[in-house]
Amino acid sequence: MTPTELRFWTIVARRAALATPEIAASILAAFQVLRDNLSDAELQRAIDLGYAEQIVAQVISDAAWQAAFQPVRDSIRRSIVQSVTYYARTLPVPPAAAKQLAISFDYLSPHVVTAIRQLETATLGKLEESTRETLRAFVENGLRDGASPASMARDIRGLFGLAPNQMQEVANFRDALAGANGRSITNYNLRNRTVDRLLAKGPLTEAQIERYTEQYRQKRIAINAYTNARTASGDAQKLANRLAWQHAVDTGVVDGDRLKRQWIGVMDSRERPSHVAMEKQVAPFGQPYSNGQMVPGEGEYNCRCVERFFVSRA
After folding, report:
1. So what's the pLDDT on residue 46?
2. Buried b vs exposed e over 156-180: b needs ≥16 C-beta within 10 Å?
3. C-alpha distance from residue 179 to each of 9, 194, 201, 216, 305 (Å)
4. Tens digit of pLDDT for each residue in 264-301?
5. Where are the domains of the chain?
6. How far apart (Å, rounded) are the C-alpha atoms in residues 312 and 199?
7. Which DSSP string do the residues of 52-103 spell out, in sequence order?
8. pLDDT tens-digit profile of 92-129?
9. Partner residues linked to 20 by β-bridges
10. d(CA 48, CA 139)
C-alpha cells in the first residue's frame, strides 16, 4: 500500500468511527416518542397485571416501536445513499466514470433493498432487545421488592434509552449521592460537579438527589444513543462501500473474480486485539475473512474497522 493509499484509508477508518448526528438525534427522538406515548395511569394498569412479560409487551408494542423508529430507518438509508457517492471515489476508473457510477447507483434494486433491510433489522433489533431487557429487569426487580405500581410507573419512562447495566449504573449513582452502600460519587465522571461542593457541606436533600440522578440519567441516555448511532453509522458506511463495488461488478466496470478486500483498522489503543490480528488481511470479494466475518466487525458493537477494495492483477 502506497503512503497516499494509507493516508486515504486512515481517513476512511476515522470517518467510520464518527456517528452521523442525524442518526443519533433520531434514536434520541424515538425514545422520547415512546416516553411521551405512555401515561402513568396506563403503566400502572399494566403493572397491576403482575407479569413482567405482559408489561413489557404492552409498554413496547411492535406497532409503537416501528412507528417511533421509522425515522431511524430513514436516517440509515440516507446515510448509505450518501456514502455510496463517497466510496465511489475508491473505484479504479476515471473520475468521470466513478461520478457517473455513483449517480446511476440504484439503491432501490432488490439486492440493495435486502442489504439495507438486513442492516436496519440488526441495528434496531439490538436496540429493541436492550430496551426490553432493561424494562423487564426493572419490572421484575420492582415486583420482587414489593414496589408500588405508582412508583414503578413513574420511573419506567426514564428507562428508555438505557441498557440493563446502565440502568443499574444510574441506580448506583443515586446510592452514591445518598451516601448508601459505601458508594462514592468520585467514581462517576458524568456527574454534575456541583454535587461535590454540596456534599462537602453535608448530605443532599431528597429533591437534590432526584435532580442530580435525573441529570446523570439523561447524560447516560445521550451517550448511549450516540454510541449506538456510531455503530449504525459505521455499519452503514461499510455497507455503502460494498454496495458501490457490487454495483461496479454488476455493471461490468470491475471483474468480480479479481476483486479483493483488505481489512483496515484504526490501530490505536482502543483497537480490539482480535482485530489487530486481522490487520491487512486480504480476502476475495465473495468470501469471508479468516475469522468468518464477511465485513470487518460484522455483528460487533462499536467496531471502527473498514475494508479496502482493490482489483488484483491476476
Report:
1. 82
2. bbbbbbbbbebbebbeebbbbbeee
3. 49, 16, 13, 16, 42
4. 998 889 899 999 999 999 999 989 999 999 999 988 88
5. 3-255
6. 65
7. HHHHHHHHT-HHHHHHHHHHHHHHHHHHHHHHHHHHGGGSSS-HHHHHHHHH
8. 777 777 677 666 777 777 888 888 899 999 899 999 99
9. none
10. 11
Are 79 and 236 in contact by the 8 Å Cβ rule? The answer is yes
Residue 132 to residue 126: CA distance in whole angstroms: 10
CB atoms within 10 A of CB 61: 13
Q: What distance in Å separates the CA atoms of residue 56 and residue 46, rounded to the nearest whole number? A: 9
Neighbours of 67 (CB within 10 A): 14
Which residue shows C-alpha cell 467496531?
303
Please count the other Cβ atoms lying within 10 Å of the Cβ belonging to residue 41.
Answer: 10
Selection from 86, 297, 110, 126 nearest residue 228 by Cα: 126
- Residue 31 Cα distances to 72, 127, 213, 217, 259, angstroms: 11, 10, 19, 13, 42
Number of H helices and number of E strands within the chain?
A: 12, 3
Q: Taking the mean position of all CA atoms in its chain, how far away is CA 258?
A: 34
For the chain, the helix, strand and coil percentages under 3-state DSSP, each to the nearest 5: 65, 5, 30
How does DSSP assign 273-300, residue by residue? HHHHTTTT-EEETTS--TTS-SSTTTT-
Q: Say how far apart CA 246 and CA 110 lie, in whole Å.
A: 13
The residue whose grid cell reads 416518542 is 33
Burial (CB < 10 A; 0-12, 13-18, 19+), residue 124, is buried
Pair type for strands 282-284 and 259-264: antiparallel
Is the pTM value of this prediction over 0.85? no
User: CA separation (Å) from 45 to 41, 68, 151, 152?
Assistant: 6, 22, 12, 11
Please answer whether residues 303 and 296 qualify as being in contact, where contact means their C-beta atoms are separated by less than 8 angstroms.
Answer: yes
